[in-house]
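Researcher: Please translate sequence to structure tokens.
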Amino acid sequence: MAQPQAEIAVIGGSGLYQMAGLEQVHEVKANTPFGSPSDAIIVGTLEGKRVAFLPRHARGHKLNPTNVPYQANIFALKLLGVRQIISVSAVGSLKEEIRPLDIVIPDQIIDRTRLRANTFFSNGLVVHVAFADPFCGDLSKTLHRAASQDGARAHKGGTYIAMEGPQFSTKAESHLYRSWGASVIGMTALPEAKLAREAEMCYATVACSTDYDCWHPGHESVTTQMVIENLGKNVERSKSIVRRVVASISPGRSCSCHSALATAIITAPDHIPAGVKKELAPLIGKYIK
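Model: Translation complete:
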């Protein structure tokens, strides 16, 4: 029996371990060249469309941000035919105007991770994808519109600091990131966004603000309890936003994200090892035979 297919995927972050409303559900246990994904992928129908749901940290929250198998997650979604990824994640606010429980749809990102594989391409294959605009602009607009329609205080645009974790920031770090003009800080949007671009998939993030990190003199520094409490308040809103977005996405929608590799593969085809070509065929097969 062929694996169920889906065009849209939702990657759930802290607090979002299941997707209510999915019908005709199948569970897919994928195998990839990069190992197994975080958990079984739940594929079903939502708002008349085939949707794949993957809990980033696994059900039960067993994987810290460093240990999430990002490559396997994105590759597995690619195998299912996913073209658009909606990511949901918890973040701390680095700006006064972004309050706890607000929603941010970032348009830029700064990479402060250091322990994670951030590309599919090595072992004799060199690829340089454009990443000036790390989040899909069209999908981000759809997310912001859906969040606003749902009644959220939604902020369009902003810079996401992707930190390694799992510890939270020091005050010095938090003030440094504020001096850079960053908007929010989280632990999971990278390397997800980079890998999604390499896999020619649209990727955008619903960043749910839970706290003011540790820079704000009028608020306590972030704690796990604080994050969990505010995440619980935002989970239903996140699910509602996702439903609105899924309903509004046109089937077969095309985007420049879907041709990100067209001019990015540097290695001459006859110099790419045969095993690499075969292994990465789901990513490069339309360009390299």
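Researcher: Any highlights?
Model: The chain has a mean pLDDT of 94.
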